[in-house]
Amino acid sequence: MPKITREEILAVFRRLVARYGLDRVTMKELAREAGVSVGTIYRHFENKEALVSSIEETWLGHVRARNSQILEREGAAEPKLYDLVVVHAARLSEIVRTDQAVFEMLVGSVRLRYIDHDVVDTRRRILDEMSTAAATILAEGTAQGDLDVSDPSDAAHHFVEGFAEYFSPNAIVSRPHARVVEGLEGMFEFLMRGIRAR
Questions:
Q1: Are residues 121 and 180 in the same domain?
Q2: CATH for 7
Q3: Is the pTM of this model over 0.90?
Q4: d(CA 130, CA 80)
Q5: Which of 26, 45, 62, 139 could covalently link to 152 via disulfide, CB atoms 3.0 to 4.6 Å apart?
Q6: Please, are residues 17 and 100 in contact by the beta-carbon 8 Å criterion?
Q7: What's the pLDDT score for residue 68?
């Protein structure tokens, strides 16, 4: 059997779950697709839950890195907030149409059959990361005089939750991507009206 790295196994797993979903991919199928024995997979990953957790951590890492880039930018708060929520949600709208695993995680109700792992946590953790970044942006915008927010943390929570409720993966895949983006932009404008400084 050829040597394979942990990252290569994870890449194969990621490709398989994107196509078939988190629950349908077995360790045996993963090993066959990777061209190694099941034992080789277990030398790198304790179980399927460890594979799923690695994917979740990768996604969370991408969200954190993207949020950090937005927060580090100079400039007004509103374009930063737009990039944080609208651009992020528009990108996810493209991804959920072709990636079954992302779709399942965003639906937030997946309970994997063969392992004791609940991915509701992942959706919640992403929303918490987004809310934390949004709170920082809202506080900056208020300090700059562009926004009028008395409690940035509370406002950020409601702002992000508003998008999360609108951004139902089931509803998104039933509409053309262009309509989803149009709706996201409308939602953003609606929410901004309540927090722009007058």
A1: yes
A2: 1.10.10.60
A3: no
A4: 12
A5: 139
A6: yes
A7: 97
